[in-house]
């Protein structure tokens, strides 16, 4: 088996034609604003990947999903980032449906039938702020819920059919609780503003989504048992698990695209080429180990999330080492002749900036080692 053959075989099996469609475009065209990649993903039926089969979806298990996401990241880093947010949102809906009132299942089937894409408005992008403190507030007014606030950056902002957003809402007892709001993109009061200025990952459509007096039916807001800065409940643990695994796999794919160029060039010593593959494949094996356990066990508790975070932070280090070494192995003329190598190295570094950051989690992870509960800040 060649490098990335396993991952591309999974992608071809679950989303036939997507890999070939992405491969026929130049990297620069896929990564620019207005990229054709999102439309190709929709056309290939990617919206249904994590929707259970009983709801007419593809029903990919966690191991299949992370392998597929590595393959996507190797073709189009922006698409891997954007679709991770969609998959994470769908997985959260599936988890919510286990104890929901029933509309979640109807929504999942609509996602498949209409090939709907979900943007994820969960809190991130605010330095020093807890990711459990959303930028969107929900208020009850009579028989309705009204949302105000914004999410930036928000991937798939231009192509979304639905926004799934974390909100803070005061319950009947006066306690602020976290919830998940499901907002159709065409709801009055929803708008998109330019936000992403970098050319790196511009194809992910990461803009600002603004909600101004957005009125929802109460059943479109699912309250959790989590209060800001508190221990996570099962819905949040499951969501974070999917997010960390899929995002890590996607960025490992981006770094793999750079290593693949070194392998095809064939000029670097065998020891260098083997070391590059070993670094990335070892990191992917860690991700796969967590994904396999996640798929085999119904208990998706804190220990598994700690394992996912461990794999993610280890992958960050492996990506940093391999992208630097791969650029050196490609040589100066390759660097001068094309900006693809430098672009892939820059894009792969993006994993460092997704929540929860290693710096904010260091104390919490040490507390877990001392027998305490996991808190995500």
Give a structural overview.
There is one protein chain. The chain folds into three domains: 5-113, Acyl-CoA dehydrogenase/oxidase, N-terminal domain (Butyryl-Coa Dehydrogenase, subunit A, domain 1); 118-223, Butyryl-CoA Dehydrogenase, subunit A, domain 2 (Beta Barrel); 234-369, Butyryl-CoA Dehydrogenase, subunit A, domain 3, CATH 1.20.140.10. The protein has 13 helices and eight strands. It has helices spanning 5-14, 18-23, 27-31, 37-43, 62-75, 77-97, 103-113, 234-265, 270-296, 302-330, 332-337, 340-348, 358-369; strands spanning 118-121, 136-141, 144-154, 162-170, 176-184, 190-193, 207-216, 221-223. Strands 1, 2, 3, 4, 5, 6, 7 and 8 form an eight-stranded mixed beta sheet that branches. The longest helix is centred in the middle third of the chain and has 32 residues, at 234-265. It starts with a helix and ends in an 8-residue tail after the last helix. The mean pLDDT is 90.
Topology of helices and strands:
Layout: H1 5-14, H2 18-23, H3 27-31, H4 37-43, H5 62-75, H6 77-97, H7 103-113, E1 118-121, E2 136-141, E3 144-154, E4 162-170, E5 176-184, E6 190-193, E7 207-216, E8 221-223, H8 234-265, H9 270-296, H10 302-330, H11 332-337, H12 340-348, H13 358-369
Parallel strand pairs: 1-4, 2-4
Antiparallel strand pairs: 2-3, 3-7, 4-5, 5-8, 6-7
């Amino acid at each position: 088996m060649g490098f990335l053959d396993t991952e591309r075989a999974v992608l071809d099996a679950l989303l036939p034609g997507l890999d070939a469609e992405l491969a026929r475009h130049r990297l620069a065209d896929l990564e620019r604003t207005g990229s054709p990649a999102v439309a190709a993903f929709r056309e290939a039926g990617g919206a249904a990947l994590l929707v259970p089969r009983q709801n007419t979806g593809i029903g990919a298990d966690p191991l299949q999903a992370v392998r597929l996401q590595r393959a996507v990241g190797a073709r189009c880093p922006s698409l891997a980032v954007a679709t991770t947010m969609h998959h994470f949102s769908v997985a959260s809906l599936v988890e919510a449906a286990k104890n929901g009132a029933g509309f979640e299942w109807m929504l999942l089937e609509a996602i498949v039938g209409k090939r709907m894409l979900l943007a994820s408005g969960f809190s991130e992008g605010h330095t020093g702020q807890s990711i459990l403190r959303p930028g969107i507030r929900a208020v009850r007014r009579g028989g309705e819920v009204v949302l105000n606030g914004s999410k930036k950056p928000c991937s798939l902002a231009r192509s979304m059919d639905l926004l799934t957003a974390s909100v803070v809402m005061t319950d009947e007892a006066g306690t602020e609780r976290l919830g998940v709001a499901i907002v159709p993109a065409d709801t009055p009061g929803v708008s998109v503003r330019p936000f992403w200025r970098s050319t790196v990952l511009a194809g992910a459509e990461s803009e600002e989504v603004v909600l101004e007096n957005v009125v929802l039916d109460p059943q479109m807001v699912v309250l959790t048992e989590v209060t800001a800065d508190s221990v996570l409940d099962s819905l949040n643990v499951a969501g974070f698990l999917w997010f960390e695994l899929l995002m890590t796999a996607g960025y490992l794919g981006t770094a793999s695209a750079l290593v693949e160029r070194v392998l095809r060039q064939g000029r670097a010593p065998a020891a260098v080429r083997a070391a590059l593959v070993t670094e990335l494949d070892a990191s992917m094996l860690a991700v796969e180990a967590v994904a396999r356990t996640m798929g085999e066990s119904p208990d998706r508790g804190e220990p598994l999330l700690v394992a996912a975070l461990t794999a993610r932070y280890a992958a960050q280090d492996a990506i940093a080492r391999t992208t630097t070494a791969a650029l050196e192995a490609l040589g100066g003329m390759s660097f001068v002749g094309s900006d693809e190598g430098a672009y892939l190295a820059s894009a792969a570094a993006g994993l460092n900036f997704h929540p929860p950051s290693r710096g904010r989690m260091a104390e919490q992870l040490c507390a877990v080692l001392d027998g305490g509960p996991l808190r995500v800040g």
